[in-house]
Amino acid sequence: MRIEVIKRDGNSLEFYLEGEDHTFAGLLNEVLHENKHIVFAGYTIEHPILTARKPKFKVVTDGKITPEKALEEAAQKIFDRAREVLNLWEEATRE
Predict the structure, then answer these.
(1) pLDDT at position 6
(2) pLDDT (tens digit per residue) in 26-66
(3) Which residues, in sequence order, are bridge partners of residue 42?
(4) Which strand (E) or helix (H) includes residue 59?
């Protein structure tokens, strides 16, 4: 995974999330929407063959946090939830 910033303007950030597809992009988008400071978050895959693994995101905040901070918080939430599932799985398989 690699982030390629396209445009940064005030409370708006556009970037490509290279190496990912709808699976992770959809999850990231959903978690971003849980943040009360997000005004807009969305992504598109511009061409299903040429850019299938390069979703283009746009994130806009209300100015109380930066788009970068919103991304950082969303990534941490995803990590924490994945860790929780892994821990539950390990507990279930020990029995």
Answers:
(1) 97
(2) 999 999 999 999 999 999 998 767 666 899 999 999 999 99
(3) 58
(4) strand 56-61
Residue 72 tokens, joined: 């950082």
pLDDT of residue 69: 98
Strand duo 12-18 + 2-9: pairing = antiparallel
CATH fold group of domain 2-94: Gyrase A; domain 2 (3.30.1360)
**Calpha distance 15→91 (Å, rounded):** 38
Mean pLDDT value across the chain: 94
Over residues 91-95, mean pLDDT: 88
End-to-end CA distance of the chain: 36
Which residue ranges make up each domain of the chain?
Answer: 2-94
Helix (H) or strand (E) holding 5, with range, is strand 2-9
Alpha helix positions (H), the chain: 22-32, 67-94
Residue 9: strand pairing partners: 12
